[in-house]
Amino acid sequence: MNRNSLLVFSLLILASCSAKIPSNQDDICDMLNESPKWEQDLLEAQKRWDAEPSTVMAIIRQESSFDPDAAPERNRLLGFIPWKRASSARGYAQAVEGTWEEYRLETNKGRARRNNFSDSVDFIGWYLSKAKSVRIKSYEVDKLYIAYHEGYGGYKRKSYRDKEWLVDVAKKVKYNSVRYERQLKSCPLKEKKSFWDIF
User: What's the predicted TM-score (pTM) here?
Assistant: First the structure.
């Protein structure tokens, strides 16, 4: 294999390993069809944290549009020199560094990565499981999103009262969650059968 062929082969391997951003984010069935492994990740988070798959997916859509490398834009010095980012938020869930470290310590998942879908889904489930502390119900998706965005301390202080834009975004997240929930009736999540299930 010559040098050029090796380079092309390496690029093809890297492309096949890279995460695919869903082409139709309005339809959860289409997304799960494109990325079948996501189904098991969502089911595991539901079992572990009682996190609704439709809510988790609506939050990821809002936070990163399913881009594993999503991050806030860099500030610019003198209007054109790239500088620091406005926040440490990264990945599918746009988790900030401090909260991600808290999650990794509390769940004993030291190798969890923010650009990994499975880890991000588990993170969101873990975070939403704490909503009981501020008396938010699982179906109050708009409130869940506000608490996710502002933190539970911010939610309790009602920091969102002066952020009309955030309330509007939260309504959008709730709308997408309800839509995904309805769509899942035509493509319900199913546990992947193991080899031993045939016996």
Answer: 0.83
